[in-house]
Amino acid sequence: KQEVTQIPAALSVPEGENLVLNCSFTDSAIYNLQWFRQDPGKGLTSLLLIQSSQREQTSGRLNASLDKSSGRSTLYIAASQPGDSATYLCAVTGVTGGFKTIFGAGTRLFVKA
Amino acid sequence: DVKVTQSSRYLVKRTGEKVFLECVQDMDHENMFWYRQDPGLGLRLIYFSYDVKMKEKGDIPEGYSVSREKKERFSLILESASTNQTSMYLCASSELGAGGMPYEQYFGPGTRLTVT
Predict the structure, then answer these.
(1) B59 vs chain A: nearest CA distance in angstroms?
(2) Chain A residue with minimal CA distance to B41?
(3) A41 and B112 in contact (C-beta within 8 Å)?
(4) B22 vs chain A: nearest CA distance in angstroms?
(5) Residuewise pLDDT in 10s, chain A (113 residues)
(6) How many Å apart are CA B86 and CA B83, to the nearest integer?
């Protein structure tokens, strides 16, 4: 059974710092991995999708990498801003087990001005 | 831009009531999903649908049913609401990828349901 873990659970950084959020998964037979942002009380906003055949994806200040063999993904945020404060979730869709997507518990990020 | 809308942002219902949560997407996506999100438990899949009138149970289908009569609309039904169904409900949609797997998922704003 796929398990997705995100470390750290919470992170507080000063504005302008570069940071890395980590996601690990137990079953490497994945179809894709997706990173989301969630603001308090709101839905999830898709940030980046990495297909299993890809190593990384970039969007603006965000870069996500995928290492299937080690069961790890990282989300790199460059030059963090207070507006980046939110919870970041990773989600893995596996090849086995049907259409199910398994979500991590998230990393709560606070960027101090 | 993909848009997924949910019928209500906040809903308060009484125990035993039948509750309907509606979700509409405007991108002609084949797949639609209903999740609930609870503190400490994360997001859990209730039901999903990969085509009109098709549905599959997720991890926690007990106490829920779904309906998909049109491709753009996916409804979640709480047959007899109970206090343990107080939660944030999130709808999502995605294209059908290779091999039937879901492609990128897009979420609605969520419905915060309170059952008293």
Answers:
(1) 9
(2) A105
(3) yes
(4) 15
(5) 899 999 999 999 999 999 999 999 999 999 999 999 999 999 999 999 999 999 999 999 999 999 999 999 999 999 999 999 999 999 999 887 666 899 999 999 999 99
(6) 6
